[in-house]
Amino acid sequence: MSEVLLDGEAVAKKIKEGLKKEIEGFKTNGKELKLIAVQVGENAASRVYVNQQKKACEEMGLKYELKELPSVTTEKELLEFIENLNNDNSVTGIILQMPLPKEINPKNIQVKISPKKDVEGLNPYNMGLLVYGKQVVAPCTAMGAVELLKSSGVELKGKEVVIIGHSEIVGKPILLLMLQSLTESPTPTVCHIATKDTPSHTKKADIVFVAVGKPGLVKAEMLKTGAIVIDIGINRVPLLDAAGIQVIDEKSGRPKMKTVGDVDFEKAKEVCSMISPVPGGVGPLTVTMLIKNTVECAKWQGN
After folding, report:
1. Bridge partners, residue 275, by sequence
2. Which of the four pLDDT bands, split at 50, 70 and 90, describes residue 178?
3. 3 pLDDT exceeds 80?
4. In which residue ranges of the chain is CATH 3.40.50.10860 found?
């Protein structure tokens, strides 16, 4: 089968064009949008995401600031810091960088972020609006995955959808986003670690989302011919040569690595009608949805 690759970069670019005009519109009316990222302690992976956020915001004309707190910050101190940001009228949105020190419960902090500044869509109030189908914002990766699917132009009404993974930031919100319309929604099924026979579900699915963090989890034989696959997984695995031997970096002497998703891409693409690559699929849309949520928060605050 001749598959179609779902290009996240192209979809993100189109969305950004519209968002940039909206951000410029706010500036024209004397309002500069500002996104604040809060990081407690140092984390290399978080730093990469922070840099991506900063670059994307600067490209869009959106002010971005990173507030770095020491690793010894207590939960009480962090809650007080968040409350100060809630009360700062110059702050449009707040994003809490993960991970937090083990002494701090992330959910306690997410509850404290004002729903109108919750650009990650994780405050219980915003999750409740998502359940009611009236969301202003939603978790960024879930939104990105759904936007990528919608870019395919495929009608969702009546389709069988399987979501593998039921996390609060991806699987569950994708389920709710799939059910937004009372009359045009597909029929979603959620598979997870306790599911006894995941292939029995995926073989019947017209559309498969997977967000588990396990390379090669979804194999070609698990998919229906002509299915659409949205791969949200991000995994680092050793790079192998044609003989299946690890490729070693000559300078460092360590194995070279590559980024892959949760789907056995090379074989699955022979079965699918459409599939998202990793990297280049959902990834570019995650930060774009963060900016979109910031703009939506600004509108909400203005109203």
Report:
1. 5, 229
2. very high
3. no
4. 33-129
The rounded distance, in Å, linking the Cα atoms of 177 and 123 is 16
Q: Report the distance separating Cα 94 and Cα 82, nearest Å.
A: 8
Contact 130, 99 (CB under 8 A): no
CATH number of the 33-129 domain? 3.40.50.10860
Tell which phi-psi region holds residue 73, choosing left (phi > 0), alpha (psi between -120 and 50) or beta: beta
- Most distant pair of Cα atoms in the chain: their distance: 61
Query: 135: pLDDT confidence band, cut at 50, 70 and 90?
Result: very high
Delimit the CATH 3.40.50.720 region(s) of the chain: 140-283
Quote the pTM value.
0.94
Asked if residue 290 lies in contact with residue 84, where contact means CB atoms within 8 angstroms, the answer is no
Question: With the CA atoms of 43, 47, 50 and 51 taken in that order, what torsion angle do they form, in degrees rounded to the nearest 10?
Answer: 180
Residue type, 214: K
140-283 sits in which CATH class?
alpha beta
Give strand pairing partners of 118: 94
CB half-sphere exposure, 243, CA atoms < 13 A: 3
